[in-house]
Amino acid sequence: MAGMEMMFDAMMSAGGAMAVGAVEERLPRLAARLGKFDRAATLAKLGGLLTDPGLHANTVRIEALIHLVMLRAEGRVQPTAAQLREWLNEILRRDDVGRMEDPPEDLFVANVVSGIGNSLLFEGIWEANAGYVQAALYAVTACDRTCREWAAHCLRQSSALLRLSTAVAERSGLKRNEMGGWP
Fold first, then answer.
1. Could you report the per-residue pLDDT of 128-158, keeping only the tens digit for each?
2. N- or C-end of the chain: fewer Cβ atoms within 10 A?
3. What are 62-121's pLDDT values in tens digits?
4. What are the φ/ψ torsions at residue 114 (nearest 5 degrees)?
């Protein structure tokens, strides 16, 4: 039981370090600077970084910055590559967020099978993400076979997200079972 408690404590403290409010409090100058930037343009660039297998290990920092941008960006300024590098590699890397990064242990892009066929799924930083998605799809498909109306709706939405993920992966030149890297 002590092992479970230690794991739970570690998860809770990590969650606190990653909470956008906590990041904003620790980095008020960065949060304030983001106000002048265009939200959509900044998010597009950061989203593009999440499709680079060489940056797989940096997902935590990129996602933390995405949350800050969503919260604070209200302006019209387009971020430069130098600004993105500063925010990610100088500011967030030194923060608790940067210390949460770990070499990737799973695939960068995995395969998921559904009613629409094979789909490419970005694994992110969650261990065995594709396996859990696959299991959920099997469960919802079983519910759909018993004529549950919500299940058909859920499968349509899941299929749309899988098509989107596949299109982004293919456009980025990524293939099934692609590995991420550690810079």
1. 889 999 999 999 999 988 878 899 999 999 9
2. N
3. 999 999 999 999 999 999 999 999 999 999 999 999 888 888 888 999 999 998 999 999
4. -145, -170
> Which residue type occupies 85?
R
Between the alpha carbon of residue 103 and those of residues 36, 125, 153, 157, the distances in Å are 33, 10, 37, 32
95 burial type by CB count under 10 A (0-12 exposed, 13-18 middle, 19+ buried)? middle
Please check whether residues 95 and 19 belong to one and the same domain: yes
Q: Is the pLDDT of residue 167 over 90?
A: yes
Pair 129, 56: CB distance under 8 Å:
no
Nearest to 33 by CA among 77, 66, 67: 77
Considering the domain architecture, whether residues 40 and 6 belong to the same structural domain is answered as: yes
Categorise residue 148: left if φ over 0, alpha if ψ from -120 to 50, beta otherwise.
beta
- Report the 10 Å Cβ neighbour count for 65: 23
In terms of residues, how long is the chain?
A: 183
Radius of gyration of the chain (CA): 19
Q: Which structural domain range is residue 53 located in?
A: 2-99
My answer on whether 152 and 169 are in the same domain is yes
Sign for the pseudo-dihedral over CA of 149, 151, 153, 156: negative
pTM for the full model?
A: 0.83
Q: Which of 41, 66, 99 is the last residue of a domain?
A: 99
